[in-house]
Write a structure and sequence with these properties.
- With about 240 residues, this protein is of the alpha+beta class.
- The protein has two domains: about 55 residues, Diaminopimelate Epimerase, Chain A, domain 1; about 140 residues, Roll (Diaminopimelate Epimerase, Chain A, domain 1).
- A hairpin with a 4-residue loop joins strand 4 and strand 5.
- It is globular, with a radius of gyration of 19 Å.
- The two termini are about 30 Å apart.
- Belongs to the proline racemase family.
- Pfam families: Pro_racemase.
- This is Hydroxyproline-2-epimerase.
Length: about 240
């Protein structure tokens, strides 16, 4: 099993974190190039290792919860987007007037924080009152290897350097629901810094089972010591 954390707490699911975990486990000799199963807080996901540090993640069932929801964003005005689940709750926006490029990250972060504030202020949630804590903006890309470029604001205010595995899953569910992408057809999602996930989806009733493929690289190893003479070796209770 695996639990994901970011700078403010626990995440339901993390696609690029799962890819990184799979590559790390392979580096440590804990898994081989077969299909494996991981338990996450929102369900089981499958991982398959490939050559060149690439990993496929079969994510949890994903779906669009609400289409074309309009909110009033401070400093912008009315803004419409879809609410969708891809392992986390997302508000996905196409028509936003922002330039999605790495030199514009601070402005994009401020804008998407205002979107998240508007969602909370107006009581827009996912199913069963689930908090929409991820905001995803999309734009065309001039990269011929990708279909779209995105910017994703995560809980805590950090932005996703990857194309976001759960966000790509949510996008895939919306595309298939709209008939813009067929089950089994590949969607190539580029991030704000230019890396790409490839994704396909298969139908499971009224939901989509996404498979997201990307790469990760081991950049270092750390070693912790447990000194029996250290009076605080087991930590501190307050």
């Amino acid at each position: 099993g695996i639990i994901f954390f970011n700078n403010v707490g626990v995440l339901n699911m993390c696609g690029h974190g799962t890819i990184g975990l799979a590559v790390t486990l392979a580096h440590l000799g804990r898994v081989d190039k077969e299909v494996h199963c991981l338990d996450t807080p929102v369900g089981s996901v499958g991982i398959e290792l490939h050559e060149n540090n690439e990993v496929s993640v079969e994510n949890v069932p994903s779906y669009r919860f609400a289409r074309n929801v309009t909110i009033e964003v401070e400093g912008h005005g009315p803004l419409s987007g879809d609410v969708a689940w891809g392992g986390n709750w997302f508000f996905l926006v196409e028509d936003h007037g922002q330039v999605i490029e790495v030199g514009n990250v601070e402005r994009l972060s401020a804008f998407t924080r205002r979107i998240r504030a508007a969602l909370g202020r107006e009581g827009v949630t996912g199913a069963d009152g689930g908090e929409i804590d991820h905001i995803e903006l999309f734009a065309p890309t001039d990269n011929p290897a990708a279909d779209s470029r995105n910017f994703v604001l995560c809980p805590g205010g950090a932005y996703d350097r990857s194309p976001c595995g759960t966000g790509t899953s949510a996008k895939l569910a919306c595309l298939i629901a709209d008939g813009k992408l067929s089950p089994g057809e590949t969607w190539r999602q580029e991030s704000v810094i230019g890396n790409i996930f490839e994704a396909t989806g298969k139908l499971d009733g009224d939901k989509v089972i996404p498979t997201v493929r990307g790469s990760a690289y081991v950049t270092g190893e750390g070693e912790l010591f447990f000194d029996s003479t250290d009076p605080f070796r087991t930590g501190i209770s307050t």
